[in-house]
Amino acid sequence: MRTAVISFPASNCDRDAYTALHQVTGQEPVMIWHRETEIPANVDFVVVPGGFSYGDYLRSGAIAARSPIVRDLIQKAGKGLTVAGFCNGFQVLTEAGLLPGALMRNDKLKFVCKPQSLSIVNGKSRFTSAYNGQKNVVYPVAHHDGNYFADKKTLDKLEKNGQVIFKYDENINGSARNIAGITNDAGNVLGMMPHPERAVDPLHGGTDGIKLFQSVLDAAL
Amino acid sequence: MKAIVHVGLKPGVLDPQGRTIATSLVDLGFDEVTAARQGKVIELDLTGDDKAAAQERVTAMCEKLLANTVIESYRIDIED
User: What does the alpha-carbon distance between residue A194 and residue A85 come to, in Å, rounded to a whole number?
Assistant: First the structure.
């Protein structure tokens, strides 16, 4: 499986994503700078990394979502390319219209940064199949704008369609229905605030993230 | 010509920053404050002098970038 990571100015988890993808796939991911206009055709999986792209100017993820490379990402995701956005990457994907809803300021106005227990709500998605029925995972969270918002109709549809993939086991940021991660309708685009790419080595404090990448790899084979 | 764009959270969308501002004002003795909503103002310098055309262009800017219409609404004032 060929993978890629998009780097924006002030992305800071692009290296973590690179390391996680390298470790799981055994191949070096392509690093794509935001000014590039095309994702190489042989890439099967793109990670939009965490960080503070463009200094969170205007709204978190807003400027990155309008960058040239994201235009191509939107087009290729529409044709079925597998995409995952973690943290700021989730914000970018909602701003780009690839995922419904929006990420707002945490309800307590505090930056939350800690290991967080999550429930796997849909263990059959292409991002969670390798968990084999495992119910909970712990991934780090580190965000200020992680308060997931969507109108009731959208939330109902997400839940009904199995698009809610992860929920927080406690509400840490005000997110509607404790939602931590969702996919699009087609199931090929995932966005989540927690960081599976920062839970792939015992030195990280846990390795629960490995199976998320393993799931994508399994689906590609 | 200038366009002043006011962007704020839609009614019904919880505004934790606004809520905190209101609480803080009440703590300072401004008990008449019952709620606050925080938004932002974006001032644009524009070429041309056709106000109607500017209104239309700035509306497109709001829809494409300046506001996230999932959670935000906007108001545009065009000035000389």
Answer: 10
